[in-house]
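Hi support team,

I've been running sequence recovery on a batch of backbones for a student project. Most finish fine, but this one hangs at about 90% for roughly twenty minutes before it completes. I'm not sure whether the input is malformed or the queue is just slow. I've pasted the structure tokens below so you can try to reproduce it. Let me know if you need the job ID as well.

Thanks,
M.K.
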């Protein structure tokens, strides 16, 4: 079932809106936020904008040395704590420690992720993209829900992608145990999962004041592309043979600051006070995918916002962790 709220709200913002625009007049003083991957690419810009709006930001990091360097002068060093999303025990240890000295969490932005990496597996045998983008964030989110419930009107933002259109959840073989690994299918599945996590959290928690949103940040050249060779980016049409963005991409792609704006809008906008469990893009609630020529890039496929799929994924993820 697809929410009737999955339709644009005429936000007044757009694809190239900047953080300062979407946060204009919004005071986050006294609020606490946690941003995974908050020290790289759009994550850094998300952290920066939240801090500038008065929020206290925490940035758990697998590479704390890199995070300390990237966030110097933005996030206090004591708010940068080690956490590895590929390791559920590491995530749970972070949750336990964080919960022992923070009494509420107003904003959780699941921003970290891996994209189109070569086949890698965790010690549990899980495919890495699903392990990081879904399982690790699931452990984190579920563990922090009591702190979000303790806040007034907390919001969860999970970063999905238009890549979700490449694959729904592969229920028969999520971890590519019985089929040949295909990195883009694996990425697409993990980004569908990110959206479905928001759908399920919203359903479970909206009566407790917690609302959740899946977000496609837009196309941005960031370290997320680190596993792609230039030749592949040329083949994808992202880059010309000289290593420069193609004309089409230059028009469509966003800057890292613009890429942070939809997350920030979903996390803070009063326009969404009575809305949740939806997928957003370009600082707007997305329309369902239509049959137009831009269907590959615009809108959300049903499988990424289906509440029955979301419930099934929650149960399946818990089963993997049991």
């Amino acid at each position: 079932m697809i929410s009737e709220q999955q339709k644009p709200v005429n936000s007044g913002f757009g694809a190239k809106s900047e953080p300062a625009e979407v946060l204009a007049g919004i005071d986050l003083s006294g609020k606490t936020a946690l941003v995974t991957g908050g020290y790289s690419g759009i994550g850094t810009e998300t952290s920066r904008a939240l801090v500038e709006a008065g929020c206290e930001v925490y940035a758990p990091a697998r590479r704390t040395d890199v995070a300390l360097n990237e966030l110097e002068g933005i996030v206090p060093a004591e708010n940068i704590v080690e956490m590895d999303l590929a390791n559920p025990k590491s995530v749970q240890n972070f949750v336990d420690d964080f919960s022992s000295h923070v009494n509420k969490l107003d904003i959780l932005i699941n921003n970290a992720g891996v994209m189109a990496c070569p086949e890698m597996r965790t010690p549990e045998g899980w495919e890495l993209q699903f392990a990081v983008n879904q399982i690790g964030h699931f452990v984190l989110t579920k563990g922090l829900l009591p702190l979000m419930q303790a806040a007034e009107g907390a919001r969860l933002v999970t970063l999905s992608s238009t890549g979700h259109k490449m694959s729904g959840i592969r229920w028969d073989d999520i971890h590519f145990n019985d089929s040949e690994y295909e990195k883009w299918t694996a990425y697409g599945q993990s980004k569908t999962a990110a959206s479905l996590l928001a759908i399920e959290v919203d359903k479970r928690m909206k009566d407790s004041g917690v609302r959740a949103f899946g977000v496609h940040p837009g196309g941005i050249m960031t370290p997320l592309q680190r596993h792609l060779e230039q030749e592949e980016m040329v083949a994808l049409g992202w880059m010309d043979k000289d290593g420069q963005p193609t004309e089409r991409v230059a028009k469509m792609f966003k800057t890292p600051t613009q890429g942070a704006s939809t997350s920030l809008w979903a996390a803070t906008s009063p326009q969404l006070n009575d809305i949740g469990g939806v997928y957003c893009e370009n600082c707007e609630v997305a329309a369902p995918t239509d049959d137009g020529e831009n269907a590959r890039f615009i809108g959300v496929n049903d499988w990424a916002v289906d509440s029955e799929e979301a419930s099934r994924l929650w149960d399946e993820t818990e089963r993997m962790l049991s």
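--
Follow-up from support: It reproduced on our side and the slowdown came from queue contention, not your input. The chain has ten helices and seven strands. No action needed from you.
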